[in-house]
Write a structure and sequence with these properties.
homotetramer; ATP binding (chains A, B, C, D); EC 2.7.1.90 (chains A, B, C, D)
């Protein structure tokens, strides 16, 4: 193991509230407690693959002390993957050497961490990973920063929309992030007291939905909120309108909220509208929870560098931050289990 | 003038944060200070035109004391207009008599207040109006409740989106309410420090926009925020893609934000995305400002009933709540004047 | 085990955001999934010990569906403890029988749960507990609802105060809840990027603090934020002013923030002020996190009733809600461990 | 009138959310639209009276573009008044000349603007004022930035406290800023639906308060919220406890909320607590309203420099930003008029 003098750090993939918390904690612990120097690499792997004038920046305690409440990442991000083109990985390693980075903290999702793992395997790169997935779908860790903020934003949106739904006697269908895992929708559906919550893990029962809203209308509540993941698909016999099928033969509506709103309006006779939260869910100041979790991740990642835990990544297990093998990061998608979805179902109606 | 024993109250048109503040203030002042009884009419004019079992509800102080922080309207709303069908207006008047309502407080926009004005003219109905337009486009009043909340929500959205735009080096185009008047977009563009703000009142200069974002990119800021009203239209030679023309021969993009995002991406080479705030802008708990303004409106409306100021509506003039003729309400749309748009333009770049 | 037809439920001790989430989940799962009837008992044990006209209320799904975003408890609370007077416990048991409550869900802290445990032991009362402690100091569960909300509020307060501290070149000392355990202060200190964080678990080093703020001043930052738990005590030789000693011979300042502010001002020469957050930390709408956790607690508590898990309480372990013996609830106070306080210390400066 | 090449700008007195909005707007309009250079003066008049190394800073568009959402003032502030010591005013004028500042924008309250006015009178200094008073007590302008934010924070505090008051059947007395004028308390009392609102302008009727809370208790609401200005005083016969008298012979309680809480508890028999909001009310990110108002002030102030409107200050009149004589700024304190306090009184109970 080569001695560490300078730690590099990069963020890859989609942004998540809390990235700056990790950057800050890695930097401050590395400098103050371990005496390392720290280089921020701009735009993920791209900054190491094809460095521009501004791709490497020296980070001081003063640079990062007050970035904890900022969303996004001060280092920028990209989806560049050096394993997509033959020879690129080698270039990354060479460039790391060139700029004098002895150890690397890679913060990102499946893709970013997969590159980190392979660099470690193929070149012995001294790398430590930090998982980032706003979707909460990483099986290697109980949860990740960004998720709590996303759920909070979506919950506040539902809180706001409910008053409009009631005033106008409408159903409002809210489309929430989550292509393959319904965690954010599940969280916001439960916390926002949605009347129906739909996630990609469970095929929606449109007949049941229709009967829920009919029954509500009979009881004088001709309105409601549906929280639906963008990744929800419908069985073929559901759709009364033109729709395309996905690779599994499932029907994927143009926009799932828009399609579902049309269908519900048709079948219930209740005016139904839709809202797509989109980018609103991932930006802005992180919740206190995400600030603390990202800080703890960053501190433990710096400690892993100190310990030489190469090829590992930090993870939350219960109340503890531990390190696990980077290969675990990409093993399988963690989806919402039946019992948790059952929790949401108790409040249908 | 017939003596007043029971005041009726209804809310019409789109919901706005603050409606409950008016309802509360009218009810509490009418009962506590004047000794009236108060009836809430459900679903706007519909509740008087075709009453159902739940269309009229007696309101007590206890019913309304704690509704000030609730968005929407506890009375519900509709777009029913009794002047659309011959004979309906008469039915409304008869039904008012039937349920013993001697005076009516009508809370709503152009349409709702137009009906109130005509009922007063045609039948001598003892009516007082209260203006409601989240769009701030009513010339008879300096501002109305709901506007501040809408601007606040859109501003917070821009605050959040900025961190994503920076992290990913993207332009984000945010579509904000306002078909004919750009007030909300103007407010959120200014308060949110948008890099470009576009309103329906001023034809957008796409070339200028492109050059702003190119210059920003040259200075190392390859990202930006565009705040755009849903009602903005483009001149014909702008659009490189299929687009339909509106009644004035202007090009109306499918969704203005979506269309503009495509165009900016094409011309600047910067990744550009869009977000449509939609219903999020009008629901949920009102700001303190809107709670206070709606309360003052409600108190003054009750006072107008006491004074017999029939055919009048309440309005804000400077720091004062005054009454003006209902006919003023519908006179002309108040649009964003040049000097205020100039204020927004100072911050372009 | 006696069959369950009617579940009683009460909340005792200080209020916490999330109590209504538990009440709602217990009620809805009990009625919808298990067919029980549910009685809410008002004012904790007082409602069973000395029932008044309004002490017992039948709860329906409609009563609780939309209380999830309300702080406090719709059932009210008290600090009545039926084990303080001979014979009172028996009265509670008799009154439960009288109102036909076969099983009881007791939601509260040490004191409330201690009563629940003894009733189960002494009378075989069919009781299930749900832990509530905003202070996060219960060793039997990883965390409890209310804590996240309290940390969020205190963090937002620090965010706000920082701008004043900078503008006026002042130190601001913020007094945060926590008599014996510093969890809330630790969380808010970390999330709020405080310059110094002091908790009851660790004796404060005033000399170190003074040197931190002197060094900051030398670097042009003549300001700072200190997050301090109300329960922090100081060693005798610290205090230059009159102060009383506590039972352990430690010096307890009148108000800890006020005393510390005076001392820091004296020693650093920097203008220093204090703020006491007090009741602000425990009220109001719960965060999404606390809404979800309290809901999961309530669902599991209802399930425990169904399973006849008498004398147990629900608890969070990792990502799972489990049940543990009620005796565990009161075993020992969970304090902030050294490594977590070390995390906060990394950011001192 | 001397030609203007470089505009100086300073902020004096207590901080207010929105100061950065003025600084930003003055800077951007001065540079982009008028071609001036801009110098920020640190720590108010102190920065001109006794300049240190960091007292004058050149401001660019890049320095200020994104400070709109920051509370406080990037220029810092002080309470230094150069008219307190003979000869100091002259020094200020000389130092302005020394650093090449031809025109000065002074942002502050009575004190700061009073200095600006005298410098203009005594030395012909080319000065423009911008009023800042979170207390809203300046008669020359309809409102000022910072007030809306302060009211919003205090309103949110009341919203939170209400749930605790209800859960524990307590009266909570909330002490809000306002020594001589009750505007913030009035606003928060109205917006927060307080049960009683007390302001310095009107002597409190404790008997009435007691009877309000007794009546509430009889109706099953043994709780309530009192919003009280820090500057409220009580008549002598009120106080059952030791208390000191102020210059007018009025009784000023140690802390008004604490004293009043003790009194209410004594007389109503209801558990009563108090909270002092203190510094929380003036810090942190400004509301959208205050961002817009401060921006408009700043733009108009720059315009006033351009126009050579020396000795004037900007002010809001209705929807317009105008300029008025600086002497108007200090003329008289604007207090809450009877009719507005009457509005608050309607909701007592």
């Amino acid at each position: 193991m080569a001695e560490v003098n300078r730690v590099g750090m990069l963020t890859g993939g989609g942004d998540a509230p809390g990235l700056n918390g990790v950057i800050r904690a890695v930097t401050m612990r590395s400098i103050s407690d371990y005496g390392y120097e720290v280089s921020g690499i701009r735009r993920g792997w791209k900054g190491l693959l094809s460095p521009e004038a501004d791709s490497v920046v020296n980070l001081t305690v003063g640079d990062v002390r007050y970035i904890l409440d900022e969303g996004g990442t001060i280092l920028g991000s990209s989806r560049t993957n050096p394993y997509k083109n033959e020879g690129d990985a080698k270039k990354v390693v060479d460039n790391m050497a060139e700029i004098g980075v002895d150890a690397l903290v890679a913060i990102g999702g499946d893709d970013t961490l997969g590159v980190a793992r392979r660099l470690h395997q193929d070149f012995g790169t001294q790398v430590v990973g930090c998982p980032k997935t706003i979707d909460n779908d990483l099986s290697a860790t109980d949860t990740t920063f960004g998720y709590d903020t996303a759920v909070s934003i979506a919950t506040e949106a539902i809180d706001r929309l409910r008053t409009t739904a009631k005033s106008h006697e409408r159903i409002l269908v809210v489309e929430i992030m989550g292509r393959h895992a319904g965690w954010i929708t599940w969280g916001a559906g439960v916390a926002g007291a949605a009347n129906v919550t739909l996630i990609p893990e469970v095929e929606p029962d449109v007949d049941e939905m229709v009967s829920i809203f009919r029954k509500r209308a009979e009881n004088g509540e001709k309105w409601g909120i549906v929280a639906v993941s963008e990744g929800v698909t419908f069985s073929e016999d559901f759709v009364t309108q033109t729709a395309e099928k996905d690779e599994f033969g499932h029907v994927r509506l143009g926009g799932v909220a828009e399609g579902l709103a049309g269908e519900l309006k048709e079948r219930t006779g209740i005016d139904t509208r839709h809202v797509v939260l989109g980018h609103l869910q991932r930006g802005g100041t992180p919740t206190a929870y995400d600030r603390i979790l990202s800080t703890r991740y960053g501190l433990r990642a710096a400690e892993a560098v100190k310990n030489g835990e190469w090829g590992k990544m930090v993870a939350l297990r219960g109340s503890e931050i531990v390190t696990v093998d980077l290969s675990e990061a990409t093993e399988e998608t963690k989806t919402v289990p039946d019992d948790l979805y059952g929790a949401a179902r108790t409040f249908f109606g």
